[in-house]
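Entry for the shared binder. Reason: the reviewer on the internal report wants the predicted structure included alongside the sequence.
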Amino acid sequence: MKGLCLVFEVHQPLRLRRYRFFDIGSEHYYYDDFTNEHILRKVAANCYLPANKLLISLLKHYQGKFRIAFSITGVLLDQLELYAPEVLDSFRELAETGNVEFLAETYSHSLASMSSRDEFTAQVNAHSRRIEELFGKAPTSFRNTELVYSDEIGNWIAEMGFKSVLTEGARHILGWRSPDYLYCNTLNPKLKVLLRNFTLSDDIAFRFGNREWSEWPLTVEKFSSWINARAPKAELINLFMDYETFGEHQKKETGIFEFLKALPAEVIKKTPFNFMTPSDVADRFEPVSAIMVPNPVSWADEERDITAWLGNELQDAAFSKLYELEQMVRTCSDPALLSDWKYLQVSDHFYYMCTKFFSDGAVHAYFNPYESPYDAFMNYMNILSDFERRLQSACPGDGNGHELIQLRRRLEMKEEIVERLETELHNLRSKLKKLTVKGGKTATRTVKGSLSGKSTGKSPGKPVL
């Protein structure tokens, strides 16, 4: 049995309004409602509604032979509820077919996994509850923001009870191996790791409408032949892409909807692959090996790392400042502040500060409301300054709340270090004790053997060099 896993990421950020230095302390609403509603309605009309309608008909027609998965961010769900509830209804209709899996991810489409396990866990739990509330089933598979993954993050995900995770089949983690097999987490082998086949995925997501591409036009017959060519050395092909590929990134005029409509029949009839969801894959396949990912990878840019979000001083400064406020946020119960905290973590805010203007520049310019990375940075930091002021005012205490929180956190960190060192010391003492006992026994055997002349076959007392 061979599997083809088709997964769509569905996300739109909550864009910030122009926020000047002189607004700090006087204006506390941070969002560009007009732009957010305009773009969401545009994408809904071009992509979400027509694509959902098409997929509903395909899923009903193929009655279980065609299966797909979605990863819908909490930020988008909030906007759909506000601006386009009919899209939410169509996703519910997709869920009702029984052949769609909805994945868990961070609620805010954030980079919390790069800073705080507590915040990461809280967001994933909040998102899982929302998915279960909307679509009737708790997620069992996980897709982190922008496919960000490492061995440590995978271990966290496994400990939260997920059975599979999606990430990028980056060359630098695969080496000679193929992305077309199932792997497992190095630290916790129970977690199945699905790797994106970025060549085939990007043929649809990025190159489909490119007339300069040597393989243009991409037909379903040609695409299925490429899949077939991989079959002898592939167990699983993972196609992960933005849902906005259909009708937004690749316009309707390119024939992208016709391609999607014809794809299931072509794969089912002319390839040995069966459509599966990530949970199907985790249930039916066994990993061929562990995949070692010591440093975080993502599906962004040529480097397939996290430098699209945390690759320059502007991004690092903004990111550090944001998560410095985490402990203070945990003492706050103000709904407005907690809502802002959630939306200020959206990874797109840091993406707009990216200074990559070469091969990946066009990608970073998509729907970017800022004229420059510096403009994005200043706008965000102005908002963050106002947010911090409000947070300090709302914190319980005598005005020294922030300092106390920071001191408490430092104390906790020191306690964690002491605990870790004590554990290491205990382990070392145990090893030393075992070595001492073992060494004593060996010495005793050696002395006895030497006295008897049996240990070396030489006369007693003669040194062995």
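Summary line for the report: The chain has two domains: 2-291, 313-401.
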